[in-house]
Write a structure and sequence with these properties.
About 35% of the residues lie in helices and about 10% in strands. With about 130 residues, the chain is α+β, with helices and mostly antiparallel strands. The protein has two domains: about 40 residues; about 80 residues, no CATH class. It has four helices and four strands.
């Protein structure tokens, strides 16, 4: 213990400098990770009241769902969602979910809002968060 104290007193400035460099490196790394995560999110845009009607219409590219009733939905969940025609279960994904981005364009079903997907009988994928 005495040797450690003597070493710390002798090299105090070097030890402090090393600790500062380590803490700055860790902080910079974590800030970089946070920045990368924020860039992956889809930006939300707010439209004027003149375009709100376009959010209430049903947009199905799947012919199976064309006979569903045309109901009006709230514009609170105005982010479009996607599903796959070939999935085993009827699940939908948000655009920022990894599994949603893996759906090929020919198998992709796009719903104008989350509420429309729910009305069509789809549920949110377990690995996709809001």
């Amino acid at each position: 213990m005495e040797n450690l104290t003597k070493f710390l007193k002798t090299y105090q400035a070097d030890v402090i400098l090393a600790l500062v460099v380590i803490l700055v490196s860790i902080t910079a790394f974590n800030l970089g990770k946070i920045s990368a995560l924020q860039q992956q999110k889809t930006p939300i845009s707010i439209t004027g009241p003149g375009t709100a009607n376009s959010l209430e219409t049903m947009d199905y590219s799947n012919s199976e769902n064309q006979n569903l009733p045309n109901t009006k939905h709230s514009t609170l969940n105005a982010v479009s969602v996607v599903a796959s025609k070939n999935s085993a279960g009827k699940v939908y994904h948000f655009p920022w979910c990894a599994s949603g981005s893996k759906i090929s364009e020919k198998n992709k079903i796009t719903f104008t809002t989350e509420a429309v997907a729910i009305a069509a009988g789809y549920t949110l994928a377990g690995n996709c968060k809001k």
